[in-house]
Design goal:
This protein has 374 residues and is an alpha/beta fold. Strand 10 (303-307), helix 10 and strand 11 (331-336) form a beta-alpha-beta unit. The protein is built from 11 helices and 12 strands. Helix 2 (38-65) crosses helix 7 and helix 4 runs antiparallel to helix 7 (200-210).
């Protein structure tokens, strides 16, 4: 716990310093009238935004480690996923590493958050590359079917049944039992100072466990390392991998009425202004009870945008359920910075519902809202 909080304090203090200093200098120059060209101000804004993105990435890793991130599992063909990832892996690990991806034509589908699985595999490949420096070597990414009986499942703290075992194997230096016992600890790293956060494997472990699977490590000094991810079999067809997302132009809102329910006053004010600027009529509420009263009133409401974790006894999920009971067909967009047991991360939004995770850019929220209303 001390290692976790100490690492967090160090990383977030650096990020907060970057944000605060950029905004402080910008404010001082604006007050003194010495900002100069507009691009000078944009430089300080860009530095603050970079710190925000880094902080968001760190928070997402922590949520993954704690198994409280908002996942979007879909039926997935892991062979296709690995095939689409291999070029990125090869360019990331460099020419001195041979990357092999043998495929099992009879591989079962699994139901998993595909983007998180891609991130996990890329993370494991980067670790494998580092374990083979400077001599180089080989990385093998493979997936096979595996049925675990009661004894095998108990050994891995899983339920007996069918799994897809996705493995990343390297020919690197390997690990001692002492290192293996600690590799999933947050902020534990064997890399030199400044060359790793120590959160990568914690994130992989948290994501796989939250997905109902397990991570297994096979390694010994001088014999390389194999990381095995056990993912539950999906009984049904696997979807094909989505093509790269293209930007959706923002269309006029046709004066759609949006109810915004958010307890944080800063976020509520900023979102209300952005939505109004985008052409929506905006109603606001500060908690679930006030939001429910708005939904019960005789006024048109096309969409509900609600935080998941609301105070006052009615959370965002309960508010959405009540709203759709009162107004069938009501579109719902959840916003959340934390997806625990009570949040929609464990109960996927259904038709006419979507989720966006804080911190987000308004363009992402606007795109999801537009798609819901269309």
């Amino acid at each position: 716990l001390g290692q976790l909080t100490g690492g967090l304090a160090h990383d977030f203090n650096n990020l907060l310093h970057g944000m605060g200093s950029s905004l402080e200098i910008l404010q001082r120059k604006l007050q003194a009238g010495s900002l100069g060209k507009p691009e000078d101000g944009e430089r300080y804004i860009a530095m603050a935004q970079r710190a925000v993105r880094r902080a968001a990435s760190l928070t997402q890793r922590l949520l993954a480690f704690s198994r409280r991130q908002a996942l979007d599992p879909t039926p997935t063909d892991v062979n296709l996923l690995i095939g689409s990832l291999v070029d990125l892996v090869r360019s990331t690990v460099g020419p001195g590493i041979d990357v092999q991806t043998p495929a099992d034509a009879a591989l079962w589908p699994t139901c998993v958050d595909a983007s998180q699985l891609e991130n996990a595999l890329l993370n494991l490949c980067i670790n494998a590359r580092d374990a083979m420096q400077p001599a180089g070597g080989q990385i093998t990414i493979a997936a096979v079917n595996q049925t675990l009986d009661a004894a095998e499942a108990a050994q891995r703290t899983l339920a007996p049944g069918d799994y897809i075992r996705v493995s990343v194997a390297d020919t690197g230096t390997g690990m001692t039992p002492e290192v293996i016992a600690r590799i999933f600890d947050p902020f534990f790293t064997t890399k030199p100072l400044g060359e790793g956060t120590g959160l990568g494997l914690s994130m992989v472990y948290g994501f796989v466990r939250q997905s109902g699977g397990q991570v297994e490590v096979v390694s010994a000094p001088g014999q390389g390392t194999t990381m095995r991810l056990y993912l539950q079999r999906h009984f049904g067809d696997a979807g094909t991998k989505d093509e790269a997302r293209t930007a959706v132009p923002f269309l006029p809102a046709r004066q759609c009425v949006v109810l915004l329910v958010e307890d944080d006053p800063t976020i509520r004010t900023l979102l209300a202004e952005e939505l109004a600027d985008a052409g929506y009529r905006v109603l606001v509420a500060i908690n679930g009870s006030e939001g429910l009263a708005r939904l019960q009133a005789d006024q048109p409401i096309d969409a509900l945008i609600t935080d998941v974790g609301l105070p006052g006894g009615i959370d965002g999920k309960q508010l959405a359920d009540a709203g759709r009971g009162l107004r069938p067909g009501l579109k719902v967009l959840f916003i959340t910075g934390y997806a625990g047991k009570a949040a929609v991360g464990d109960v996927l939004p259904g038709p006419g519902m979507a989720l966006v995770t804080k911190p987000f850019e308004f363009a992402d929220l606007a795109e999801k809202l537009q798609k819901l209303l269309e």
